[in-house]
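Summary for the steering committee. One of the milestones for this cycle was to obtain a three-dimensional model of the protein with magnesium ion bound, which we needed before selecting residues for the alanine scan. The sequence and ligand used are listed below.
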Amino acid sequence: KSRQNAITAVTNYTPPSTTLNFADIKPTDLFGCNVFNDKVMKERLPKGIYKSLKKTIEHGEAIDPSIADTVAYAMKEWAMSKGATHYTHVFYPLTGSTAEKHDGFLSPDGKGSAIAEFEGKLLIQGEPDASSFPNGGLRTTFEARGYTAWDVTSPAYILENPNGTFLCIPTAFVSWKGEALDKKTPLLRANQVINTQAQRILKIFGDKSGNRVTSNAGAEQEYFLIDRNFYFARPDLQLAGRTLFGAKPAKGQELDDHYFGAIPRRVLSFMMDAEHELYKLGVPVKTRHNEVAPGQFEIAPVYEHANLATDHNQMLMTILKSIAKKHGMVCLLHEKPFAGINGSGKHLNYSLSCEGHGSLFDPGENPHKNAQFLIFCAAAIRAVHRHSKLLRAVVASASNDHRLGANEAPPAIMSIFLGKHLTEIFQKIQEGNSPTPTSSGFLKVGVDTLPTLPRDAGDRNRTSPFAFTGNRFEFRAVGSNASIAGPQVALNSMFAESLDFIATELENATKGDQSKLNAAVQKVIKDIMDNHSSIIFDGDGYSAEWHKEATEVRGLPNLPTSAEAIPAITAPEVIEMFTKYNVFTKEELESREEIYLDQYNQAIMTEAALVVKIAKTQIFPGAVRYQNELASTCANMKTIGVPFTTDVLEDVTENLRKMQAAVVNLQKIMENNTESEVGKQAHYLCYKALPAMLEVRQYADYLEDVVADDLWSLPSYSEMLFIK
Ligand code: ADP
Ligand code: MG
């Protein structure tokens, strides 16, 4: 009955009474109204303290602890004026989620009353009882303390609940020895590293300002919405985030009518509500639209500094989920909730920028600026080639595996797309310095000779995992459910390593003599092209020919599954890079590898258990009832002497038997899942359990198309995807 009840409930849905009206509160007034932002700080802090705090925020300078008490007091007063009773250090553990532990402002005064307190030391450091968060062996129980440390560069904010509000303080989460236990700490470290190395390049090109180089991110978030009633009738969606069963619907995304249609009214209402909340939190959401799959949508903000963009993306995911509930729906962030139709990603638009330059991936107005731009692009070519395995590893998860390489998402083989024009320029520069140029018209990097560079990359290649899009790179392999911190830590460190290499080459070649710069740039680009151009690919990343060429001719790594990809986190060249720039210690990397493999294993074990349970308790009983109906009809017909074919009965019986056998097989495989080493277990689960689960599904999905509709208890794909 659960499915029928769900359908009835969906049919009777009444929208929540909302009172949002952007005519009453102007969006410009709403934006950031719950954020302890620059305007609030300026109003509420003494001038000297405001200035000191600003320095820390803008230049990444160390915080002066003596100002903490004053800042804490101002924050508390502001928060209480907005109805806050509690504060929390918000942190980002390796689960990928957002964690909080609340403490009240109130303290008893010893005379039967209470006073509101918030001291500087509580602002700067917290000690959540967070011993159950994954630490990969970095904390044993006797030293289980983890500390949260205020991240001054991401502003505090107020979260609202119908019954009150509380102050949220973004923090880093570290062990008592200072080892990173979270996603934020390494990102803050990597942001510093990219600044140092990129500045060296700018200096070589004559910029002595010392202006900070920041990395920026704009994360396009895709998601599915389904009615809550269907969700609760699907144990697989509830516990695994994706459907483990479900026959292909008669109509899928073939017609693209959803993509090009108007946003459904109920969904639009949800979007406006979510955006309203996000505006208050200062998240600059900008774009909303339908996505390719039915029931799939996208929301994209304007890009921001890496750290802020990352915190904002976490908030965005939380808000999408909670506001969906209010509208009777569930927001699915899983990368592949439904087989056979598109999955969800989170295209990470990545750039480096510097005051006075704009994006460093933006071709300039003159040849001198263009040479600098080419150097940053050359760094990208070198970085992606050297660390393509790492790039694959940082997007690896059990859920994203179902999406990558599924002919709708970027392949698991990493490559870089530069566009035809830019690729040609690099090739010509390469030839310009070669003794036997292979095509005419080779280029020399020089003030007179470098042509104007394309401001637009030309065609957009949608099949590339890492594409140049005019003034930034778009990393498309990131999963919809993942934190964008990991990919950015990798990108910043990889770019820093290559910029470091290039800067050293250029410094040695010029020794400060600007007249030698052109030749030095020419040489370094040629060298990079000679050694790394096999990573450049402008063709169809989905094609079988590319897979063959990439792996067999170009020797590019293909890590199809997380079981293979995650261990790349501790490959020798990766450890060398991260430790050289103090982004991770070897121990931190090892702990992460262990945690991510363990998460992968847990995800598959949960799914396997669900497959067995749903097959036995929902699919089998429904199919058996139908079998019984058919059998008794057969028997009845026989007694009255009317012929009745038994095809369907035999078909159902046959597939039930096969499904039963597949379930038994899967159970055996799970009983033998005894490998104690996480990496080996990941391989076992990946190559033994996943195929066995698919086999069960194959028979179950077949039965769904045969068994009487009223006996099928799981909501179907078409119900979940098309009923709004
Ligand atoms: P599309 O779907 O065509 O790629 P969207 O408008 O959906 O474009 O998303 C583009 C994203 O890229 C936005 O988040 C935008 O802010 C971001 N972006 C634009 N310019 C830059 C840049 N220089 N650096 C980083 N992100 C950028
Ligand atoms: Mg988009």
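Key point for the committee: The first strand starts at residue 84 and ends at 91.
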